[in-house]
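In response to the reviewer comment on reproducibility (Comment 2.3), we provide here a single inverse folding case reported in full, input and output, so that an independent group could reproduce the run without further information from us. The structure tokens appear first.
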């Protein structure tokens, strides 16, 4: 049905910005152009923090119109961050606005989970690390605020599934994003009836799960007319942005590699053929999330470049390159702990929070952007190194190469610090791994490439940089 030069649209929504890209695989290489970029930032209203989904939808449609002006498009797929969701009522209207996972409504909820289900049992059922941002604490916080919520809600969708629904009218949840919720059984690869029943969450709200690469259907006629896209189908890629990014990592088969997906959040881990759910994994707070082809992403999730993004916002959004150059020229070994709760929430007070935290640790930090930036990046490097060391120990794995993708792969200071902290070679790139993985899963879905060709295509495509530990 589609030729080898079939073109695909990747819609990637991140917690700080979105993009619409158009790409194709030709001659064993992937090429794509980002046609439209747009900002995304959670909007405070009262005491709550929400995503402006309608504005994101407007931007997406604008990007689709740009793409349609460049000729026929075979397919569209959407990726977003995990854990956040929308609920629908019986009239297929969303119930309230979509909360951001950084909303403070979940504070304290995670500490009450044991009252309903012991943590060991909850981990055994889901294999997910305990974080206040998870969908389970979010739903419980929502129910606490509106006790009749679950009697009104008839449908639950993760955010990429919501966009797919708006595009083609098909209700389905894709595995990789569902696996971030703490409501999913990674062994059975289905919603966890055990967890849903224990917490009084109706199973009927949750739609069928589909594999990465599932063809959902054609665009709705109104969307096709609005965008000019005729004959375009919607494909669910690996809808969790990290799952798409890891799909596109140009690793060699058999290589003892780990990955770091470095964006607003920092996810560090390894790829396995099956989940690892053990007491040691629970104690290390390691999570099991789904990848493509039934693989498991065994990882730890910590705050990432969000901390630096909030600092830049506080400093008036200056160009980052001069700050990074000045930070790299410094000799300071100060590093913050990015896992501290006080760094988890947005606000222009982030630099002051960092200075106060350092002072409480007995360190007087110069308040200049370069000094603070260096402390943040060194802290991120130490944090991911600790995460990978725990994962290696629990999984009996030996990491000798680390593939870093996403925005952090552009920052030499961060990449070198990770190499030094882990004593492993760091391979940086591709930066736009999520977009690449999204496009390649779509290409494999319609037969342009074989499913096993995704990483070989990336090895032929990506421009990679290597960082060797200075201790060697």
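Designed residues, in position order:
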């Amino acid at each position: 049905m589609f030729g080898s030069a079939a073109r695909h649209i990747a819609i990637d929504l991140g917690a700080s910005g979105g993009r619409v890209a158009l790409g194709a695989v030709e001659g064993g290489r992937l090429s794509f152009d980002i046609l439209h970029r747009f900002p995304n930032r959670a909007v405070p209203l009262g005491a709550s923090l929400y995503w402006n989904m309608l504005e994101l939808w407007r931007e997406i449609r604008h990007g689709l119109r740009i793409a349609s002006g460049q000729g026929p498009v075979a397919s569209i797929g959407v990726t977003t961050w995990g854990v956040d969701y929308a609920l629908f009522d019986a009239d297929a209207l969303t119930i309230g606005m979509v909360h951001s996972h950084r909303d403070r409504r979940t504070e304290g909820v995670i500490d009450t989970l044991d009252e309903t289900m012991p943590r060991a049992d909850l981990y055994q059922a889901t294999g997910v690390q305990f974080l206040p941002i998870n969908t389970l604490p979010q739903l419980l916080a929502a129910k606490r605020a509106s006790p009749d919520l679950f009697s009104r809600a008839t449908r639950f969708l993760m955010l990429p599934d919501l966009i797919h629904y708006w595009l083609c009218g098909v209700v389905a949840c894709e595995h990789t994003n569902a696996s971030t919720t703490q409501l999913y059984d990674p062994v059975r690869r289905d919603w966890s009836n055990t967890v849903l029943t224990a917490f009084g969450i109706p199973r009927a709200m949750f739609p069928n799960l589909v594999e990465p690469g599932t063809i959902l259907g054609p665009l709705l006629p109104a969307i096709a007319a609005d965008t000019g896209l005729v004959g375009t189908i919607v494909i669910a890629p690996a809808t969790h942005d990290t799952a798409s990014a890891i799909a596109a990592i140009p690793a060699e088969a058999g290589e003892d590699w780990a990955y770091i997906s470095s964006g607003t959040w920092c996810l560090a881990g390894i790829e396995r053929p099956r989940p690892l759910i053990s007491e040691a994994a629970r104690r290390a707070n390691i999570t099991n999330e789904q990848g493509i082809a039934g693989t498991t992403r065994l990882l730890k999730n910590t705050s990432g470049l969000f901390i630096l993004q909030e600092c830049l916002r506080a400093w008036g959004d200056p160009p980052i390159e001069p700050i990074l150059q000045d930070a790299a020229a410094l000799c300071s070994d100060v590093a913050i702990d990015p896992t501290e709760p006080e760094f988890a929430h947005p606000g222009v007070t982030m630099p002051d929070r960092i200075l106060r935290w350092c002072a409480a640790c007995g360190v007087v930090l110069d308040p200049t952007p370069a000094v603070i930036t260096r402390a943040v990046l060194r802290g991120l490097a130490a944090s991911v190194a600790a995460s990978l060391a725990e994962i290696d120990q629990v999984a009996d794995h030996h990491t000798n190469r680390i593939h870093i993708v996403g925005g952090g792969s552009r920052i030499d200071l961060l990449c070198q610090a990770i190499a030094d902290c882990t004593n492993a070679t760091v391979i940086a790139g591709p930066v736009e791994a999520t977009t690449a993985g999204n496009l390649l899963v779509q290409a494999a879905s319609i037969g342009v490439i074989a499913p096993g060709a995704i990483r070989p295509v990336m090895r032929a495509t990506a421009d990679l940089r290597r960082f060797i530990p200075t201790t060697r």
